[in-house]
Write a structure and sequence with these properties.
This protein has about 120 residues and is mainly beta. The protein is built from no helices and eleven strands. A hairpin with a 6-residue loop joins strand 4 (about 30-35) and strand 5.
Length: about 120
Amino acid sequence: VQLQASGGGFVQPGGSLRISCVASGLTSNGGVGWFRQAPGKEREFVAATRMNGARTVYSDSVKGRFTLSRDNAKNTVHLQMNSLKPEDTGVYYCAARLTWHVAYYNPSNYIYWGQGTLVTVSS
């Protein structure tokens, strides 16, 4: 499995961005998670989804603002981020595992990681 993240950038507070992750080699049994890491902070869970569509979960900090979607034909997961806040700034990483894990929020449970894409929210 190889992961390629893209779509980060600079946006003002209240704006929107969409980041994407192509998960080559991942089947519908797998799970994909998004994590972010701000400077000087630990990696934080953002959202995760089962590739078969059975479940999608969000952290409390992004619920209602971020939306995960899947394009299974392209093995791609998109994270639409709306109403962005300065505290959303960080490097966003997509991660994957071959099967869904109940502790989807723990980065230690993911085997495959993408290279990260930087999201900066600032006025």
